[in-house]
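User: I'm putting together a teaching handout on how multi-component assemblies are represented. Below are the sequence lines for each component of a complex, exactly as they appear in our records. Could you produce the 3D structure of the whole assembly as structure tokens, so the students can see both representations side by side? Please keep the chain order the same as the input.
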Amino acid sequence: MAGSVGDKYYDVFLKYRLWLSTTNDKGILGDGRFALLNEIDITGSLKSAAEKTNISYRKAWGSIKEAEEQLGFKLVEKQRGGKDGGNSRLSPEGKQLLEAYTELKEDFDQSVKKITKKFFNKINK
Amino acid sequence: MAGSVGDKYYDVFLKYRLWLSTTNDKGILGDGRFALLNEIDITGSLKSAAEKTNISYRKAWGSIKEAEEQLGFKLVEKQRGGKDGGNSRLSPEGKQLLEAYTELKEDFDQSVKKITKKFFNKINK
DNA sequence: TTGCAATATGTTTTTTCAAACATAACGGGT
DNA sequence: ACCCGTTATGTTTGAAAAAACATATTGCAA
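Assistant: Of course. Below is the structure of the complete assembly, with chains in the same order as your input.
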């Protein structure tokens, strides 16, 4: 989206980030973990989810672990060994959190869209 | 703010950041530069503004410069030398951008407040 | 009982980004 | 001509985050 200030013209976008955080400012769920949980839900595998979201398995695993430690409950139920080597799926709480966050994001996007419109109308004289 | 997912209880906050960015993803104006510009407007000095916002002069100066390079116009008109050593004040465009962003922030905060309320109502069943 | 694929973790290296440090230039006032 | 406070900028150091690397463990199935 483009805008102008006075007679000066430029290309700018309104961007935002949103995330859930603990009292002590440790991130719980933002875009990164959201994508990860989402893919786990779809693929049933932490490894696949990591690949899909373009992060290393090591990072994905650590990321989930961190969040769980902060929350005090499991987001993902994982099993290792077995015919497929193992698998991962969202815990009920993980699933609910994912869903709640999904809606939250939608609400946010909608609001931002409105505000953006208003903002650029204003800025463009 | 507290919430629960299923029967699991935890303390979480909804956090967010908002900023203006160019097409190539270079930040133009977020909370940091906003505070800086604001203080420049008040104090008439980049040095004072840096102190007030708790960043080094070096950083403040570089931050303004970066934004200006991206935008292609000056946000701050600066003079050096003279009886007071020099001074800085917002350009007309800088002033207008500051004002527009102020309103933007207000709108955004308002929306977030509503969304937050809804979110935590939902999460707490 | 061996192989396989995925989960589980510790360790090391690289990258990135911020903070600190150092120094120059400017121009009015004394 | 020099002093002072502020703007202007290059350089170096340090710390934190991310990526890369290395290995172990598990349990089904052949």
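A couple of points students might notice: Helices of chain A lie at 31-43, 46-52, 57-71, 92-123. Residues 55-56, 58-59, 79-86 of chain A lie near DNA strand D (CB under 10 Å from a C1').
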